[in-house]
Structure to design on (363 residues):
């Protein structure tokens, strides 16, 4: 609303309730509607920061409600989960700005979700996030039941193309022949010979690698907080992730000397004996490895740390390792994932077309 006496736009907002239950209301002014909305948004943020135990009000921005939901409802979640939620909060904040929760329409949500149609996996998770937010808002009676239905908004059905495959013989050969440093080869072959997750491998210390008993003990992981600061936490993805993995003689013969020269964390950032790898420095470290591998075998340019884990599962299959033991070695909570990999490999091994062709050729 534009005031005639001052020629300024005015907006009255409700921030919440005080301890006595009375509404806390303020007015903001600006030369433009955008300025008023920005000031209203900033005032709400300031109020929430100074009043963490505020009583919910109908007049609250969608982005603000999302932040509060994560802070209160998901406080016990892991760092990676919180980081994922923070990513979707930023999407909501950038798209809607200070739009009030009570003003959001189904078409607004549809517009946001369709903006990410080119990223099928991300758009599904965004829809799931919005569904959780809407459900919480309905339970708190901040919006009418059934007003918003993110789950009813269609998302692309196409599958994301993944690079989940085993290594070729040429790629395996490159691991041993490429001009890698001792550290690069030791890290690369640790993934190859143990199938560890990237965050598990980056958290390895010298006491976790027993060269005498030839065992790697997985007991902690490296994570990054919301600000990208890396740290080691004494836990793994789940209870079954805490495990011992056999270390082949070949790894000990090739990389034993490097490990014997390490103390504390085995993998640290360049020019540091103690600094944990953050995401960006590790990406640069991995790019250097891939560049050297690609000089020997061009297809190595596709390799990711997780592909070594899939390759390890494939090697377990061809070693006739049982599904149950494979799940244990890979640290899976159940055998579902291993069953999918083994079933796929069974189909390849069966080679039905070739067998049928041979049978009919003999008629």
């Amino acid at each position: 609303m534009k005031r005639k006496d001052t020629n300024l736009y005015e907006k009255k907002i409700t921030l919440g309730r005080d301890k006595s239950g009375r509404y806390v209301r303020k007015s903001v002014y600006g030369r433009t509607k955008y300025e008023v909305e920005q000031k209203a948004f900033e005032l709400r943020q300031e109020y929430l920061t100074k009043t963490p135990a505020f009583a919910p009000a109908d007049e609250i921005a969608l982005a603000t409600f999302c932040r509060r939901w994560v802070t209160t409802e998901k406080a016990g979640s892991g760092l990676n989960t919180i980081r994922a939620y923070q990513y979707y909060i930023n999407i909501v904040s950038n798209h809607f700005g200070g739009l009030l929760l009570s003003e959001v329409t189904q078409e607004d949500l549809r517009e946001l979700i369709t903006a990410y149609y080119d990223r099928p996996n991300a758009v599904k998770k965004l829809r799931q996030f919005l569904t959780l937010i809407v459900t919480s808002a309905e339970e708190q009676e901040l919006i009418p039941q059934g007003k918003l239905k993110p789950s009813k908004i269609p998302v692309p059905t196409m599958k994301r193309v993944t690079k989940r495959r085993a290594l070729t013989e040429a790629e395996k050969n490159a691991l041993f022949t490429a001009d890698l440093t001792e550290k690069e080869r030791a890290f690369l072959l640790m993934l190859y010979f143990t199938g560890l997750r990237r965050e598990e491998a980056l958290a390895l210390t010298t006491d976790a690698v027993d060269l005498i008993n030839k065992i790697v003990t997985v007991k902690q992981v490296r994570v990054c907080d919301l600000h990208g600061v890396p740290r080691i936490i004494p836990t793994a993805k789940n209870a079954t992730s805490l495990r011992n993995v056999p270390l082949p003689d070949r790894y000990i013969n090739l990389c034993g000397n490097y490990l014997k020269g390490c103390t504390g964390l085995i993998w640290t950032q360049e020019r540091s004996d103690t600094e944990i790898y953050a995401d960006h420095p590790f990406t640069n470290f991995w790019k250097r490895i891939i560049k050297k591998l690609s000089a020997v075998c061009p297809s190595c340019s596709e390799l990711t740390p997780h592909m070594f884990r899939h390759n390890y599962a494939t090697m377990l299959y061809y070693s006739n390792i049982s599904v149950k033991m494979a799940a244990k070695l890979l640290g899976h909570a159940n055998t579902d994932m291993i069953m999918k990999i083994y079933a796929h490999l069974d189909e390849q091994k069966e080679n039905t077309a070739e067998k049928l062709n041979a049978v009919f050729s003999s008629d």
About this structure: Confidence is low (pLDDT under 50) at residues 53-57.
